[in-house]
Amino acid sequence: MPWNTKSSNQMRSEFIKLVSQPEISMAEACRSFNISRKTGYKWLRRYEKDGDSGLVDQSRRPVNQPTKLSEKVLLRIVSIRIAHKHWGADKIRAILKREHVTPLPGRTTIHRVLKQAGLINLRRKRTPRLDNLRLVQDGGRNLQVNDEWTIDFKGWWRSKDGERKCYPTIRDAKSRFILGVTLLPDSKEESVRQAMIEVFKRYGLPKSIRSDNGSPFACTQALLGLSKLSAWWIRLGIEPNRGRVGCPQDNGAHERMHKDMKSELRQKGHSCYPPPATHATLIRASVVWADTVTV
User: Is 179 helix (H, G, I), strand (E, B) or coil?
Assistant: First the structure.
């Protein structure tokens, strides 16, 4: 078969010349160019209407776009991102779903809107080092809801009334649902156990709990590093899953959640937490934040 060096426009021009001859029928011309009669009549109509310019490929963009985002939805997406600069497409889509926005845009569409608005800073992807990869017992991505929870302490808060409280946070590894955000007077085993009992009553028991090696989750001087809290988990049928010492990336998703929590609850323009007026203010802020991000 010879190599065809003619462009599509040249082929269409030759087709029009051929079909314009009175002794050549449309069927014969279409067979010569191996096209259907429907296509032949289409190019003939375009040529009769616009001349040679009608033989150029036209835009295939649909005339009507029922799923096109309205200006109101675009502004809403941008306003949510400006108000919460650390929120991604998934959280913004969940907020739009709560507000019953129709048609509901997908996460890729929302990401594209944010990118076009200049609200996303693209970062160079880094190749992970093999020595930083952690081998998870379940293979890494075969978890189901309530298979594994993660727990950690956010840190200390001091309010203006002088109260000093710590934040233990509990999160489901699969659904990323924040199960508990509780303010406690200390990080002792008794306080943490009581907070976890309330979570267990509401959501049941997980198969395992992932934590770091800090107190009260682990005890370096005890057998197998078990603390009173982790031994209590075992008695309940929960397997403790501690990360490596000095490797917060082993519980990286939980650490990232803490970063988002810090960004939402601190005062804009300050690098540290603002001192809330009272303990009750802290509780209200925590509940609102947790209810917002667990979408």
Answer: strand
What residues are paired with 152 via a beta bridge?
Answer: 169
Q: Are 207 and 239 in contact (CB under 8 A)?
A: yes
Cut 0.70: pTM above it = no
DSSP state of 53: G
Residue extents of the structural domains in the chain: 8-55, 71-116, 144-293
> Between 3.30.300.30, 3.40.190.120, 3.30.420.10, 3.30.450.40, what CATH number should domain 144-293 receive?
3.30.420.10
Task: Give percent of the chain above pLDDT 70.
Answer: 78
pLDDT 10s digits, 164-183? 667 788 999 988 888 888 87
Instruction: Extract the runs of DSSP E, i.e. beta strands, from the chain.
Output: 148-158, 164-172, 178-181, 208-211, 239-242
pLDDT in tens, 220-274: 777 877 888 999 999 999 999 888 887 888 888 888 888 887 777 664 443 344 4
What are the respective helix, strand and coil percentages of the chain, to the nearest 5?
45, 10, 45
